[in-house]
Each structure stands twice: as structure tokens, then as C-alpha cells.
Amino acid sequence: MPRNKNSISGQFTSVNKIELVNSGKEYFDLLLLLINNARESIHAQYYIFKDDATGIMIAEALKAAAKRNVQVHLLVDGYASQSLSRSFVHQLKTSGIHFRYFEPLFRSRHFYFGRRMHQKVFVADTRYSLVGGINVADRYNDINGENAWLDFSLYAEGEISKELCILCWKTWNEYPHNMGITPCEQHVIKFSIPEESKAEVRMSRNDWVRRKNEISKTYIDMLLYARSHVTILCSYFLPGRHIRKQIRNAVKRGVVIRVIAAGRSDVMLAKNAERWLYDWLLRNGIEMYEYQENILHGKLAVCDDDFTTIGSYNINDISAYASIELNLDVRNYAFTQMTTKKLDNIINKKCKRITFESHIKSKNFLKQFIRWLSYQFIRMVFFLFTFYFKHDH
After folding, report:
1. What is the secondary structure of 1-48 as a DSSP string?
2. Those residues with Cβ within 8 angstroms of residue 59's Cβ, 6 or more apart along the chain or in another chain
3. DSSP bridge partners of 136
4. 292-338: pLDDT as tens digits
5. What is the greatest pairwise CA distance in the chain?
6. pTM (two decimals)
């Protein structure tokens, strides 16, 4: 899945070593290691970068890298990271870090008009990279006795990191027509990955301004060509009509579809809208699970025995049409089996199964009205997808 390796836009790179990384200490320990070991260049692009304890920790490591003459470029979203203090940003710039905001068409302290840079990507020395849903903030870290929100990133060493480096340069420079060869492309790098460790990895993007709809197509292809099962973990699961049609058709073919959604959510409006859709999902044979341990923020899926996609993309119309999103698609049996076991463990130990019977019992007129109202409001927001009132997340 998909049957045609190159069915989206670019070919799968084949010389890569990969690892699934959990949010929390595991992710930030690795991020610090990559920053501290960087010798030439760092690109870090995040939707949310906070000047809390975690953000300060990463910022200090980036400053130290810049002091070692590493070329550090830090790009953060102009909407989600606008709460950064002026003094914090000033210190980044004076330390030698190339810093800027990804700017919308127009923004103020209270509202925003334009697409979001929702991707989370880090590349060091054109060799090592991290792509996923994890931002730089305390809530994604194990800190002050609090467990991190559930999320994941894919660590990669190899050819895909060079492609990500090129993408970071283009994003940083706002995709100029006459950019020419990027510094990443000037490097001739030979990656030595043992044959037994190699994995095929492809970069997929969504960006409506540049007519990129690759991640959406990946999910459609998964549902279209799945033979046995698809498991989706998604923090804000609000599939549009086309995805719902493919889900229903897949179930009719005998494909088992499981969805792990948030039990507790940082955006209750979205959670209520999701629960309005539960009627349709359960009626059509989808297995629904709600994560109970903490806030679920991850975005990944596995299909059959050999395909995984992971990144910043949520299955909803904001990710599909209003944001710059980045996923990595993996074709590898061992990695997919390992990821599937991790998802099985989450379902068996940390989730509550939502059956049609239990969902019926949870409903009453007031709850259903609130869910319906939330769903209609979310649909209106999707229609006006480039406008957002400022909030904390």
C-alpha cells in the first residue's frame, strides 16, 4: 500500500535507517543529541515553539551550536508561536541563530488570516532528521512530574534527510522561482546503511497554495488498496465526505478499520464534533477507541503489514486544505509490525472501546445538541479555513 510506489509525486528513497520516537524525554533527549553533535547545519521548523522550560532548553542548545559556527535556521509559525517574548527572540538572533516567523497574509494579537505552517521537522547536517507531530513546549515533554501528551516522531538517517533539508531551505526562502541549487544539494553524501536496516521512505506534503495534496492522497490510497486492516491514530479525527466514503467502501470489502481518538482533548469543540460523527462511524463498522491516559496529539496510521505514515497531518479539512503539513511514508515490514504492536498496546492498555451500545447510552438531547452545534461550527470554520481567532494551542 499504495500498490504503485510513486503514486503520489516523488519516489521512495531506499537508503535510510529509521526509528519511531515517542514524545517526552525520549524525543527531547534525541533532539538535544542531534543539536549537540551538529557540525555544519541545523534546520528546525515548528508550529509551536514556547519560551517555557523545554523551549529554553532547546534554545540554549541551538545557541551553543551557533557559537560552534553551525548554521542554525529556526522557523516557527507566526500564529501558533506569536506568544514568544521579544527578549527571547532577540536573544536567539543576537546569538547567531537565523530566526523568523512563517507569516500569514495578515495577523494581529487577536486573529490571523492565512495558512498555517503546521509541520514539525528538524534536520542536522543534511544527514539526520526528525518529522512528526511533536512541538517544542512543556506539554510535549515529561517535565515537572507531568507526562507528555501522546505523540510520535520518525527519526531518519539517510537519503530522506537530504530531501527534507532541501524542503527546509525552500520553505525558509518562501519558494523563490530562481532559488537555484540549495546548500543541501551541493553536498555529495554517501550514506552507509546496513542492508538489513534499510527502509524505503517518502516525503508527502499538503500545501494548498502550492497545489500539494499528497498526504490526503496517501490516506485515500490506503483505504482504497488496503487488503486486511488499517489502524489510524489521530488527535482531531473529522474526516470529510470523500474520506468517509473510502472508509465505508473499505469496510464493505472486509477491511478492519480501527480509529484511536482522544478521550480527553485540548480542544473540546473538536472533541464534541468528533462524537457527533461517532453515530456514522459506528453504524458503518469502524472500531472506535478513546485514549484515556492523557491528551492524545499524535497523527499516524498503519496499513496491512508493510506501510506506515507519520507526521503533522490530522484527518480533517484544516489539515487537508488550510495548513502546510508534512508526513513521512514508510514501506517496511519490520517497522510497520513494530508500530502496529505499539498501537495494539495502546488500544489494549490505555483505551476505552466505544461500542454502538455504549455510545447510545452516553447520549441525551443536550449532549447531542452540543455535539451537533460543535460539528456545524467546525464545518463553518473549515469553510473559512484561513481565519482563526487566537487561542492557547
Report:
1. --SSTTSSSSPPB--EEEEEEETTHHHHHHHHHHHHH-SSEEEEEES-
2. 51, 88, 91, 92
3. 49
4. 999 999 999 999 999 999 999 999 877 776 789 999 999 999 999 99
5. 64
6. 0.90
